[in-house]
Amino acid sequence: MSTWLDVPDEHPYGIDNLPLGSVRDAAGRRFAAARIGDRAVELTHAGQYAPLFADGSLDAFLAAGPVTWRGLRALLTDWLTDDSYRRSVQPLLTPLSELTPVLAFTVADYVDFYASEDHASNVGRIFRPDGEPLTPNWKHLPIGYHGRSGTVVVSGTDVRRPSGQARNPDGSIRFGPSQRLDIEAEVGFVVGAGSAPGRPVPVSAFADHVFGLCLLNDWSARDIQAWEYVPLGPFLGKSFATSVGAWITPLDALAQAWVAPPARDLEPLGYLDDSAVPSGLDLQLEVSLNGTVVSRPPFATMYWTPAQMLAHLTVNGAHARPGDLFASGTVSGPERDQRGSLLELTWNGSEPLALADGTTRGFLQDGDEVAITATAPGPHGPIGIAEVRGRIVAS
Fold it and tell me: Could you confirm whether 380 is annotated as catalytic?
C-alpha cells in the first residue's frame, strides 16, 4: 500500500506511521493534523471526525476512544493511498517548514515511572555505593511519582534553568540556579479513553485506553532534587519543565515493535502479569547534546512495561482521564553508551563527556541543546518517533 504523495513507503514518516499533532500556520491559526513525510494533513475537514478537531487540539479525539482512533486512521490511509482523493486532499497539505508545533493535547495528570533496571541500578550505585543498588520494593512494583502537568511543554520550547535550595559540600544551604541540570531520555504514553473511578485498568486493556506515545525529556535539577527528595520524593527538582515530542505516534503504527520484556527475577503479582502477550517495545532512542550523539538507549530492555505502568497507576482505584500522560522513567541499557541521563553518563559529573566541539560536560550549561530521537520497527522500514528538543537558557 503506497501513497500518491512523493513519500516512499520506507520513509520514517510514511503511510505506515501517520502520527497526530497540533500546529499553527503563519497567520496564527491552530489546527490538528496528521504527519506524512515532511507535510501535515489538516484534519479540520476529516469527514465525520471533523467536529472532534474544532478547537485545533487532539483533546476530543483522544476522549472518543479506540473505534474512533482506528476510523480516522483508516480514513487517512484511504485519503493518501487512493488517487481519487488527490484533488480534495492536496489543499489540506502544508509543508512542516511553514508550521509551528504546539502542545497537541491538554495534559490532565502527569506520572513519571522508574522502569529501567539499568538506570535504577546505576543511580543506586552512585548514591548508595556501599548498599544494594535497588531498593527492596523495586522488582515488586513499578515505582513512580506524580509530576506537574502544567509545566509539560512541546518540543522546541526553551527551558529556563531552575533555581532552588541545594546543599553545599560543606553542609551549608544555598539558594540559586541549579548547578547540576540534567536530562532524562524517556518515552511518554498518552491516555485517550478514560476509566471509571474505582475500576482498575488490567494489563490486557492497555490498548483500549492508550492512544499512542511520544518522546519525553524529564529535565532534572539533580542538586535541588538531592536536597528535597527525602522523604516524599521529587518536587521542585523535576517540576519546572518536561518536554514532549510534537507528534503522537499511534499504537496502531507499532504492530511490528512489540516484543517480550526482559527476563524477570521475581514473578509479578497477578494484576501485573503481562505474560499473555508481548508487552515490551523495541524502540531505539538516540540522545544528542549540541549535535554530538552521547547515547543510544534501547527501550526493549525496560523491566516494567507500559501496560504494567498503567495497571499499577490505577490499581488503587485512581481513574485514568483523557489527556493523562505517563512516562517510562529514564531509558538506559546495560552499556555505558546506552545510559539515558548525564548523571549516569558522567557518573555524577566525575567522568565528563567529551563533545565534538572540544568542550566537556558533567551537567548542562546555559545554551546547551538536547535532542532525543527514536525509531521503531515497521513493515517497510523504521517508524520515526518525533524528536523532542530543548535548549537551556539562563535563570
Answer: no
3 state DSSP class of 385: strand
How confident is residue 1, by pLDDT bands cut at 50, 70 and 90? Answer: confident
Task: Report if residue 276 sits inside a domain.
Answer: yes
Angle at 374 between CA 372 and CA 375, to 5 degrees: 170
Is 14 part of a structural domain of the chain? no
The average pLDDT across 174-201 equals: 98
Tell me which residue has cell 509551528: 100
pLDDT tens string 106-140? 999 999 999 999 999 999 999 999 999 999 999 99
Neighbours of 128 (CB within 10 A): 12
Peptide bond into 231 cis (omega under 30): yes
- pLDDT tens per residue, range 317-350: 999 999 999 999 999 999 999 999 999 999 999 9
User: Residue 50's domain spans which residues?
Assistant: 20-102
pTM over cut 0.85: yes
Whether the Cβ atoms of residue 186 and residue 340 lie closer than 8 Å to each other: yes
Same domain, yes or no, for 178 and 89? no
- CA torsion sign, 341 to 20 to 191 to 104? positive
Are the beta carbons of 370 and 287 closer than 8 angstroms? yes
Catalytic residue among 11, 45, 119, 140: 119
Structural domain includes residue 134:
yes
Beta bridge pairs of residue 361: 353
